[in-house]
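User: I'm putting together notes for a lab meeting next week and I want to include a structural view of one of the chains we've been expressing. I don't have a solved structure, so I'd like a prediction I can at least talk through. The sequence is below, exactly as it appears in our construct file.
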Amino acid sequence: MAMTPEVTAVLAADAKLGEGVLWDAERGIVWFVDIKRHRLWHFDPASGSNAYTEAPAQIGWAIPTEEGPLLCGLKDGLYTFAPESGVFAKLCDVPGEPSGNRLNDACTDPWGRVWFGSMDDAESAPSGRFYVFDRGEVRAAGPSGITITNGPAVNASGTRIYFTDTSAKKIFVADLSEAGVGEARLFADTGALFPEAYPDGPVVDAEDHVWTGLYLGSHVARFAPDGTLVATIAIPARDITKMAFGGADLKTAYVTSATKNMTQQDMAAKPLSGSLFAFPAPVQGFAQTRARLG
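Assistant: Thanks for the context. Below is the predicted structure for the 294-residue chain, given as structure tokens.
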């Protein structure tokens, strides 16, 4: 069950809350965010070059669009980001969101829709829920009443979508189609498998298996389509947040991590925490659909 590929810290980002990692195939770079430092990072694995742009608020995710800019989820709504100019522009609010909430994680489906979640910024009230952005319109879709949402994640065929309730240590799955989303049902109770850890950002591979970062768990874990745990990979950081498949062949795994809840003693034990990591993936990912703004 335990796999042991060589895991490398490819960027010492010193992230307080690294998240939202994804591969931008058109640009050949990795995007990820540091939510608490308001940073949108890019990393070029071919050259090692990297930089960040400061967002106007906490930024949960950034997804390339068909139109060119990135679509980003910030604390107060959706923005576009132009990589060439470094400019963020407010696109729309998320209707009905409490002022104490922020946006946390997102993905696209094969139709270019963006699925994302909100959460209580203080991580205490069950005020979070899931939404879909569909060609300019934001509407509630998926589970609600969640303290810390993560995901969603959609499989390559667009037939399944996974929602994570991090505080409850559960991952849910629902049927998905171009017409909409079905009712969520339990996929995996990670608390029974990793009592000290919390499931964080999920991603699906080309074999329809689900990977999740384990916050407080120092691992990523892989689940079969029936929810059975089939593999774990140790990462040299304590709080693992999200994984993505990248590279030209989509067989390099990139992993973000966090430090915001770590003491000096914790950091001494796991000094690479806050880095962006990479390892040769045992399976291939699949090309992510670019978001459609309109």
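A couple of points you could mention at the meeting. Residues 79 and 264 are 35 Å apart (CA to CA). DSSP finds two helices and 26 strands in the chain.

User: Perfect, that's what I needed.
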